[in-house]
Design brief:
The structure holds 2 protein chains of 2 kinds.
Chain A (H helix, E strand, L loop, with lengths): L2 H26 L11 H36 L13 H21 L4 H5 L5 H10 L10 H38 L7 H17 L1 H23 L2 H6 L3 E2 L7 E2 L2 H32 L2 H16 L2 H24 L8 H26 L2 H9 L4 H30 L2 H6 L17 H9 L8 H31 L5
Helix pairs in contact in A: 1-2, 1-6, 2-6, 2-7, 3-6, 8-18, 10-13, 10-15, 11-13, 12-13, 13-15, 14-15, 15-18, 17-18
Chain B lengths: L1 H4 L13 H39 L4 E10 L2 H4 L7 H4 L4 H19 L16 H12 L7 E7 L2 H7 L5 H6 L5 H13 L2 E5 L2 H4 L14 H32 L4 H13 L4 H15 L7 H26 L2 H9 L4 H30 L2 H5 L24 H9 L5 H31 L4
Antiparallel strand pairs in B: 1-2, 1-3
Helix pairs in contact in B: 2-19, 5-6, 11-14, 11-16, 11-18, 13-14, 14-16, 15-16, 16-19, 18-19
Chain lengths: 486, 444
């Protein structure tokens, strides 16, 4: 039974349960709802919740655990001696999965018939072509054992799916009936429903926690796989980045880290002064008309997707810098460069710095300004000597947040900074960053067994740790050094 | 500031500024000017950015077409003459190319132009034309033998000539187009069989391969992005609202709620590419969902959008005054009834605005989608929901990235055009959010 059909049936039973439960409650008191503990629809909701929630929970757990069970059953069928050199059980198993899902599609579309499959044992050459027809590409020729494993995979899968449908439906009916039979006028239906809803609310809010766990687990798991194949010290201290898909690559993070920090530095060099001065101007000097015009305009810069900035770097800023600065100065002939990416990223970061600083400057109490004016200071002296010192922790926090944004930014550097890993000081040279290399190592045909692919996870973990560290530091500074007025 | 208050010379006048005051006033003016310049820089940057995209991209919405009378020769298309579709579909697009060549030669003769050294005039027409003819013939087998008028896409270079991208000089060095062909194109334009019109195909057609940029469109990408937005809306809105209600209205102050709060604020700051790694590792490798599918993209974007929606929802829940809650509790509503019957409806406009802004953010997000295989070249439209969520599709921003990676300069124009489409969608979504806020926002 298809899963969406099962979901629909369970939902339908839930609604039926709602109607029946409500009716039962009303009938029990002869329509006089004053004798009920809760409003009638709460009795319906109780049955509804009992009908669907346990069933769906079971279904989700089942769907998560099913592949592991099938895999453990099927992987025994593959003879370890038959696995080719350079391959592994997990690769063969992924072939098995692909072939079995391919067979499913082929049967669905009528390219193959179920009966054909049993007679196909000796006819595996054509199978690959036929699977290709339905859009399933199989890397190598299909071996006998792999085909049998795939068939077994399908049959266990189909059986389990059938069992699951039955169990889920039974559970749904049983739980609904149990709740239905307990409905009496004294039954505290509202309390039960509200408790259940509260549990759902808690579950929803723990999605954020689960996401973080998911990120950390996936990064750490694959990173540890990577360090089984590649030494940690090489990764951290080697100054060459030269992945070779035949093995023997140099995967040192230093050139990437240098590129990342260099681009971010240039970006902050643009964004911090411009953002800070804009914030000061808008908060202290601008007339109301200028403010209502300029503030949204700057904020628009924050709403533009980064791919737009990337394209801007690629087709406008890059050639411009090359033709008018890099080439006349003899500094290089590449349109993608640290300068290109840094400048454009700086523009992107202006609103981050300016709107955060703006809030902080506005939070400095007016009495401090008045005090300063009263002593005869000019407006700029007030800003420099009173407001900025008072707002400094917040401003530093804003700059750190912008820095973490810059380090994690991807599309601008993919399109603007280039792909060559270099340790160079020339800002007009193409350099590359951590994020660029994550993209290039993980797009295209990837095999999850080579260090060249897995290094992306190690890079991702480094990126995650650095940006998280900057954020925590920023929050800590803001909290620790914030001046408390009043 | 004691040093400043001391008079510098013996005599001071309130009417005449002394040197120090002048200096201080000058510093004041300079400081003020720096501020104005910086605001100016930000505004100018936005204007230049928009102008550059518009300048490069507007031409993508126009396309040069060539109108030709094609004689659908029976001898080429249906040798047996019995109009059997199965038989006729054996003729590949190569079989149709000579028809176009003939028609082009006939056209030149009809024009009466004689261009010395003109070679391969049929290359002025997109390679897509043969496929277009074939589709037409297979759909209406009875047309074989007749002569029909067709409007074909001109090739990318001819199209570029009328958009100023290709010139006579650059054509000299280009092996895909010759100056003679451009002269012929001029002659055809004069005669009217070559014209430029609005290019709906750019919005509706799927992507096309490297050597036919003129046929590349955004159809699949728009559908893919739309599917992903549906997934995000269906998942992120209920989860986000439920989480905010719990955190804002019910959560006790303990380590668990602290953990959740810290997590949400951190997730908002995690680089988007890390979410892509998460999607690749969990949804594709672990859960076995298909690559390039809108469902995976939608799930990843949901996780990215959740913090935005939660922050917006909590702000608007917080804005509902406590008196509303107290009144509801006072007449005997339970805590849950208070929240769902009174607080949530009053906070709804704010939640909706926050959701739309979150969706707009998700629509423009590119980096995580690169990692989950949305960069794949997809030519087939995904099928309707629900199966369509699992079919390969592209996404608008990723399509832009894809086009920037191709060699033919015509794709730069397409990429900028796609950005314009993306920005129009974003503009519309943000305008809707602003209008909703203006219309329903309540000040208590």
């Amino acid at each position: 039974m298809a899963i969406w059909l099962l979901v629909l049936i369970v939902l339908a039973m839930g609604f039926a349960g709602f109607v029946l439960g409500r009716k039962r409650a009303l009938n029990a008191v002869g329509g006089n709802i004053r004798n009920l503990h809760s409003l009638p629809s709460y009795y319906g909701q109780t049955v509804f919740i009992f009908a669907i929630v346990p069933a769906f929970l079971l279904m989700i757990c089942w769907l998560i655990l099913e592949p592991f069970y099938i895999e453990s059953r099927v992987s025994g069928m593959i003879d370890p001696t038959e696995i080719a050199d350079g391959s592994s059980t997990s690769l063969v198993m992924s072939d098995v999965r692909r072939i079995s899902s391919g067979l499913d599609t082929a049967v669905d579309r009528g390219v193959l018939r179920e009966g054909d499959l049993d007679g196909m044992r000796n006819d595996l050459d054509t199978l690959r072509a036929r699977l290709g027809d339905v859009g399933v590409a199989v890397g190598s020729d299909i071996k006998q054992s792999v085909f049998l494993a795939a068939q077994e995979y399908r049959s266990i899968g189909a059986t389990l799916r059938g069992v699951m449908s039955g169990v889920v439906l039974l559970l749904s009916i049983a739980a609904a009936a149990w709740a239905f039979l307990r409905l009496t006028p004294e039954f505290r239906a509202r309390n039960v429903t509200e408790a259940a809803i509260k549990v759902l609310l808690i579950l929803a809010s723990s999605v954020a926690v689960m996401t973080t766990i998911g990120i950390v687990m996936s990064l750490i798991f694959e990173t540890s796989n990577f360090f089984k194949m590649y030494p940690l010290s090489e990764f951290l201290f080697s100054t060459t980045w030269n992945p070779q898909f035949r093995g023997g690559s140099d995967l040192g993070i230093l050139p990437l880290l240098w590129g990342t920090l260099y681009v971010s530095f240039v970006a902050l060099l643009v964004a911090v002064p411009v953002g800070l001065f804009s914030a000061i101007y808008l908060a202290e000097y601008a007339t109301k008309r200028v403010r209502t015009f300029a503030k949204p305009v700057i904020e628009i810069l924050a709403g533009i997707p980064t791919i737009v900035y990337g394209l801007f770097a690629l087709i406008t800023v890059g050639p411009l810098l090359r033709d008018y600065f890099a080439q006349p100065l003899g500094l290089g002939a590449s349109s993608s460069s640290v300068m290109t990416a840094g400048l454009v990223m700086g523009i992107m970061l202006i609103p981050f710095v300016s709107s955060l600083s703006d809030d902080i400057i506005n939070a400095v109490p007016q009495s401090m300004r008045d005090g300063s004016y009263g002593l005869g200071a000019t407006q700029s002296e007030t800003v420099r000597q009173v407001i900025i010192p008072a707002a400094l922790p917040g401003i530093i926090g804003a700059i750190l947040l912008a820095a973490s944004r810059a380090i994690g930014e991807t599309m601008i550097v993919v399109l603007g900074a280039g792909a060559a890993a270099k340790l160079s000081l020339n800002p007009f040279e193409a350099m590359t960053t951590i994020t660029v290399k994550i993209v290039s190592q993980l797009t295209g045909d990837t095999e999850f067994a080579s260090p060249e692919t897995l290094v992306a996870f190690a890079l991702g973990l480094s990126l995650f740790v650095v940006t998280l560290g900057l954020n925590v530091l920023a929050l800590w500074i803001v909290r620790r050094y914030r001046e408390q007025y009043e | 500031m004691t040093d400043m208050s001391a008079p510098s010379s013996g005599k001071t006048s309130l009417l005449r500024l002394d040197a120090r005051t002048k200096k201080r006033n000058a510093a004041e003016r300079r400081f003020r000017a720096y501020g104005a310049i910086c605001v100016g820089i930000a505004v100018v940057a936005l204007v230049v950015l928009m102008a550059s995209i518009l300048k490069n991209g507007t031409s993508a919405f126009f396309q040069t077409h060539i109108t030709l009378d094609i004689e659908l020769l029976e001898s080429k298309l249906d040798k047996t003459g019995n109009r059997d579709i199965a038989e006729m579909s054996k003729v590949s697009t190569f079989g149709y190319a000579p028809l176009i060549k003939n028609a082009m030669e006939a056209k030149i003769e009809e024009l009466g132009v004689d261009i010395e050294g003109l070679k391969k005039p049929q290359d002025m027409i997109s390679k897509e034309a043969a496929a277009q003819l074939r589709r037409f013939v297979l759909a209406n087998p009875d047309v074989v033998g007749g002569t029909y008028e067709f409007e074909f896409l001109a090739s990318g270079r001819i199209d570029g000539y009328f958009k100023g991208r290709v010139t006579m000089e650059s054509a000299e060095r280009d092996k895909n187009v010759s100056p003679q062909q451009l002269m012929l194109a001029d002659a055809m334009k004069e005669e009217g069989s070559l014209n430029t019109s609005f290019n709906w195909k750019f919005i509706t057609w799927p992507d096309a391969s490297e050597n036919r940029p003129e046929a590349a469109g955004l159809g699949v990408a728009i559908i893919g992005s739309f599917y992903m937005m549906i997934v995000v809306l269906v998942l992120a809105l209920p989860i986000g609202v439920a989480a905010s209600i719990y955190l804002e209205e019910f959560a006790p102050k303990n380590w668990f709620t602290d953990l959740i709060e810290v997590n949400i604020s951190n997730l908002a700051a995690v680089p988007s590419i890390v979410f892509g790694i998460l999607g690749l590792a969990i949804f594709i490798n672990f859960a076995g969902l298909p690559q390039s599918a809108p469902i995976v993209g939608g799930l990843v974007l949901t996780l990215m959008t959740l913090p935005t929606i939660i922050i917006a929802t909590r702000a608007s829940l917080k804005a509902v005054p406590p008196s509303i809650r107290e009144a509801a509790l006072g007449v005997g509503a339970s805590k849950m009834q208070t929240v769902f019957h009174h607080v949530l409806p009053l906070a709804a406009p704010g939640i909706l605005t926050g959701t739309i802004i979150g969706l707009a953010q998700a629509l423009g997000e590119t980096a995580p989608l690169l990692l989950i295989g949305m960069v794949a070249f997809v030519r087939e439209y995904p099928s309707g929901p629900p199966e369509g969520f699992f079919d390969p599709a592209a996404a608008l921003p990723v399509q832009v990235y894809n086009w920037t990676q191709r060699a033919d300069p015509a794709f730069v124009e397409r990429a900028s055009g796609a950005i314009i489409v993306l920005l129009v969608f974003l503009l519309v979504m943000n305008l809707v959010a602003i209008i909703l806020r203006r219309r329903f926002e309540r000040r208590w």
